[in-house]
Amino acid sequence: MNTTIMLFLVQDGITNGAIYALLGLALVLVFAVTRVILIPQGEFVTYGALSYAMLATGQVPGTVWLAMAMGIAAFGFDLFDARRSLRLKRILRSLVFNVVMPAAILALTYRLAGPKTPIAVNIALSLLIVAAIGLYLYRLAFQPIAHTSVLVLLIASVGCHLALQGLGLVFFGAEGLRGPALSNAALTIGPLRFTGQSLAVYGLTVAFIIALWLFFGFTLMGKALRATAVNRLGARLVGIRTTLSGQIAFLLASLIGAISGILIVPITTLYYDTGFLIGLKGFIAAIIGGLVSYPLTAVAALLVGSVEAFSSFYASNFKEVIVFTLILPVLMLRSLAAPEVEEEKD
Amino acid sequence: MNQRTPLIIFAALMAVIPFIPGIPPFWIVLLNNIGLAALVAMGLVLLTGVGGLTSFGQAAFCGFGAYTTAVLTTAYDVSPWLTLPLSLLVSGIAAVLLGIITVRLSGHYLPLGTIAWGIGLFYLFSKLEFLGRNDGISGIPPLSIGTFRMLDPGTIYFAIWIAVLVSALLTMNLLDSRTGRAIRALRRGHIAGEAFGVQTPRAKLLVFVYAAVLAGLSGWLYAHFQRAANPTPFGAHAGIEYLFIAVVGGAGYVWGAVLGAGIVVILKEILQSYLPYIFGGQSQLETIVFGILLVVLLQLAPTGVWPWLMSRLPIKPARKTPVSSLPLATPVRAQASSDVLLQIEKARKQFGGVIAVNDVSFDVRAREIVALIGPNGAGKSTTFNLITGVLTTTGGAISVLGRKVDNAPPQEVVKLGVARTFQHVKLVPDMTVLENVAIGAHLRGSSGAISSMFRLDRADEAKLLAEAARQIERVGLGDQIDQLAGSLSLGQQRIVEIARALCVDPLLLLLDEPAAGLRHMEKQRLAALLRQLRDGGMSVLLVEHDMGFVMDLADRVVVLDFGTKIAEGTPSQIKTNPDVIKAYLGATA
Known about the structure:
The structure holds two protein chains of two kinds. Chain A is built from 14 helices and two strands. In chain A, helix 2 packs parallel to helix 6. The N and C termini of chain A lie far apart (about 50 Å). The C terminus of chain A is likely disordered. By secondary structure, chain B is an alpha/beta fold. Chain B folds into three domains: about 200 residues, no CATH class; about 160 residues, 3-Layer(aba) Sandwich (Rossmann fold); about 90 residues, Rossmann fold, CATH 3.40.50. Chain B is elongated, with a radius of gyration of 28 Å. The relative contact order of chain B is 0.10. The chains are: A mainly alpha, B alpha/beta.
């Protein structure tokens, strides 16, 4: 192997790793706040990516109808929950939030979608759609069982993954799609060529890590989210609305997922079911980061990306085996280093 | 109703089904699939529902079972019956290797870790040359007895369902035993079990291997049922689906696994065959509906369908009452060389910069009740944890009967005859009082997992339960013996903890706030019991906030404040000690 190939692999690894880092961050975020291990994170990626790719060809993606349907269902859930104390203000708020908002997104999408729509508008539309889906997903699937065990939440999460993946096939078909690059600028340093796309990947990843760090460290809402993560009941007692915390976590996760998707769909062809595997690699990073540390997760993600790049070069057949067994030594180290201290969890 | 009766009825029913005239052969295939899935799910019931260890990787163990027999029967012409033990062995060894790494992981690391190696193994199966890569291995010979070859689904049906029924029986036997109680205590954390001698890591590894062997059995049957093995049924989705089955059926119940397998397999079949008629030929529609149904099901019955059904059943299974006259041998222990049972010398515990216990020294002699008092945060419970090995000391020495125990694991401390209760009650809420208390006698029994699966442990077990029943009677909870521990009041739960500690037949009893939550009469009964224990030769060290209770009962009192011992003496000396008054009431008092 010569230096050029090595540099190329490193670059490839870092680009992939940055995406895994974003997803890992989202997983850590959602787990910390809601105790949900978010398997459908991969679907947020594909929904974001493929919605963007479809919008770029001037078509309206089916996801926008899904957001609408989920919004209406969420409104139904809200009505059912509030059936003993139906107050107009509450109903109206739910109506605006769950029905008017997705309807507005729907109208906006139909209005703006077309072959000549600028890339920025397409991106904004896909983000809006996926964010709405993420928000309603929490309301529909997880909020009613927020108090149950991690296991039940995990199974529900798998159920969501299956349903969303199946819907992905309906919306986007079995054919893979690619989207237009965010920018066609390129930069050459020595033997390496940096595309505008990969620079955008690096930039956004770093920006997100800093933003999350600021959000959780320095804002009241961020601190409230962390408090919810540590102790749900305690957080409620001091006036934090844990439901809101969950919604925010899902909103952020779906946004991050969609952004990751939009970032990679110009680089690789995505299929309706690609998200699962991408999400899982984000998981590996998140596990290495211990599901608690953002910087560690980011570093681990870069490692996963690099290992993937190098093993696809040397032993492409065993690429996935290598990436997924990478976790074993890490787990072993973790279990040797940190004795269990958790008690009484169920 | 006898516990076996439903099993026999079910077995008879399953035996008759294939002979019903006109039964579609396809139904038999479905039943075979249910049986295969139920086997894996049963392992998960034990692992996840009972033991609290979530695994997504069970499908990979099926793969080990299936590929072992596939390779050996096709490439080396080994008889399928010979490959059965080998298949189980390979799955078991794989489980030991993976288990050593993953089982120690706590909480959410474990499920995530299992997803990771589950997927890794799937890719390995699909890339290895000698396993036939993605195409797998075909032409696996059928099971045969003499010249009778189990070629069609209707004959291997019997092999599959015999395996299911036998496994269910063995699993239920295992759960209803000394080892079973240790496994059932795992889910509530390891501290309580270890305080009574349970080797938690070993118990975890045991269930992990057990579940893997059941999965390997399912894989072996699958290979001879399909007569082929390819990677797809051993991938991540299959692993997730097995967990589904266990959770939908009711993750803590052996029959929940069978029920869950029935629900999921039939549901998928119905969705696959009827949805296209209703909605046209949309592919993957069944996955969508299946996913949504799953979420709905969990919202309606988060604990699973089996317990939901059982609670609606009018007949409750009868419990056997233990014969409380069976004697249990007293444990052989080292004899005291001196009068001092427990000696604490300059014990110290630091958590970072905080000194929780600051060079505390005191002792407990034989036949003595010593009270450890002090304001909240004085380091009393930390001292308990140091004595019982839950925490390791930063400095100083602790010895029991002249033997150094600082930094010995809890399992060793209890062997010396030191038993304890916890400030925050650590009982298993969904086990009965009797079963909870019997955990205390864990070290006084010897039957292992294998002997309890085959019911060879009954004599041993009866003695353990008899001892537990005697101690429950002794603390005055005889009427609650068959109630679930979680249904008792907090005060009563504390008393259950005392009974559990008494099952150790201890020399020294450590009680952490035993009187909290008790009513006046109950406190008096407790005091009388403790005096009676002391007069019988036992020593008691207790932490308590109720001063009336302490001053009436204790022979000596040790006072801690901010981790430091500030006074020691008889109750009357302590009552007038100015330092103690200052610590409790402030300087101006």
